[in-house]
Specification:
Blueprint (H helix, E strand, L loop, with lengths): L8 H11 L8 E5 L9 E5 L10 H10 L16 H8 L12 H7 L10
Antiparallel strand pairs: 1-2
Helix pairs in contact: 2-3
Length: 119
């Protein structure tokens, strides 16, 4: 049996099948380095900023949330940099509790928010 962290073609295919309905297919832009005054060579840009959350992190968030049982209480993200991906993926799970400055962005994504006071 493979360890849970082992990456295989089969696991990549399973993850792709699981997250594909929830993410955007993003294009690859190819450039020639010579166009930038550098030695000729190919440079590929995967335009993941076109994802719903504006980042490739949506892929990991969906993979994590769709690959496990989500707690009944919902999902809380505690990292400012990952809030967009977590909020978007949490739409599938139900509740999401954003920080005060993320509330508007989360509402625009269609999620419900709950104000929580921590004393």
């Amino acid at each position: 049996m493979l360890p849970d962290t082992m990456i295989t073609r089969d696991r990549i295919a399973e993850t792709d099948k699981r997250i594909r309905p929830h993410i955007r297919h993003t294009p690859v832009l190819r450039a020639d380095l010579a166009d930038f005054g550098l030695a000729p060579g190919r440079l590929d840009f995967k335009l993941e900023f076109l994802q719903h959350s504006g980042t490739f992190k949506a892929r990991g968030a969906f993979s994590s949330l769709l690959g496990r049982a989500v707690p009944k209480a919902g999902v809380v993200a505690a990292s400012g940099g990952n809030h967009g991906a977590a909020a978007f993926a949490a739409l599938l799970a139900g509740k999401y509790v954003p920080g005060p400055d993320e509330r508007v962005a989360v509402l625009l994504c269609g999620a419900n928010t709950t104000a929580v006071r921590f004393d």
